[in-house]
Amino acid sequence: MSELRRPRTGRIIGGVCAALADRFGWDVTLVRVLAVVSLFLPGPQLIFYVIAWIVIPAEPATAAVPAPTSAAHSG
């Protein structure tokens, strides 16, 4: 199992479903379908989603590595 972080790529709305799927090794499509289906049931699912969106940190941005420059040697 990996760390619980919202991915920078593959997000649909906030990346909460993708984060849960990555963390527990589930299929992200299944998690998304279950999340949408759960909205038709009574309960505070939408509130929990928004709270998870706020609480679960996003993946850190990868630092841009500058391309190596070749020094021109005159000679």
Automatic annotation (TrEMBL):
<dbReference type="Pfam" id="PF04024">
    <property type="entry name" value="PspC"/>
</dbReference>
<keyword id="KW-0812">Transmembrane</keyword>
<feature type="domain" description="Phage shock protein PspC N-terminal">
    <location>
        <begin position="3"/>
        <end position="59"/>
    </location>
</feature>
<dbReference type="InterPro" id="IPR007168">
    <property type="entry name" value="Phageshock_PspC_N"/>
</dbReference>
<keyword id="KW-0472">Membrane</keyword>
<feature type="transmembrane region" description="Helical">
    <location>
        <begin position="33"/>
        <end position="56"/>
    </location>
</feature>
<dbReference type="InterPro" id="IPR052027">
    <property type="entry name" value="PspC"/>
</dbReference>
<dbReference type="GO" id="GO:0005886">
    <property type="term" value="C:plasma membrane"/>
</dbReference>
<keyword id="KW-1003">Cell membrane</keyword>
<protein>
    <recommendedName>
        <fullName>Phage shock protein PspC N-terminal domain-containing protein</fullName>
    </recommendedName>
</protein>
<keyword id="KW-1133">Transmembrane helix</keyword>
